[in-house]
């Protein structure tokens, strides 16, 4: 794939993720996808990947990514930006708060044969927990 095709594939996958469109997502993600997601959770397989995606969609029904930077190098696509949404469902044991959140995200996706085969995602979970009121401001700082 060309760098532009890889970029388009990954951005389309995030659009499907944001919309909770598992059918479209399955067209873009390999059945044996592997990686690591928010909170250090390891994923193995598309079913685990989409279970996670749907849990985020349930927690933030209006959630979406805004990418400020997309870098393509060889078979990897790096995205840096923010995730925004309203906390409308349980997340990490935290009851829905109705609060609007915005936290930083960085992802590395590896593309092969027109599918995402690896996904590594990091989110500013500390900021998220603070915004949800699950952690006081200043907590977690050394």
Distance between the termini: 45 Å
Order of helices and strands: HHEEHEEEEH
- Poorly predicted runs of 5 or more residues: none
Q: Sheet bearing the most strands, described?
A: 6 strands, mixed
Strand arrangement within the widest β-sheet reads 2-1-6-5-4-3
Mean pLDDT over the residues: 93
Overall geometric form: globular
Tell me roughly what share of residues is in helical segments.
Answer: 25-40%
Estimate what percentage of residues fall within beta strands. Answer: 35-45%
> How would you name the oligomeric state of the polypeptide chains in this document?
single chain
Radius of gyration: 15 Å
- Output the number of helix runs: 4
Question: What is the gist of this entry?
Answer:
The protein is α+β, with helices and mostly antiparallel strands and 142 residues long.
Word description of this protein:
This protein has 142 residues and is α+β, with helices and mostly antiparallel strands. The protein is built from four helices and six strands; from the N terminus they run H-H-E-E-H-E-E-E-E-H. A six-stranded mixed sheet has the order 2-1-6-5-4-3. Helix 1 packs antiparallel against helix 2. The mean pLDDT is 93.
Pick out its properties:
single chain, six-stranded mixed sheet, alpha+beta, 39% strand
Topology:
Blueprint: H1 3-19, H2 22-28, E1 29-37, E2 41-44, H3 46-59, E3 64-73, E4 76-86, E5 100-112, E6 115-123, H4 125-131
Parallel strand pairs: 1-6
Antiparallel strand pairs: 1-2, 3-4, 4-5, 5-6
Helix pairs in contact: 1-2
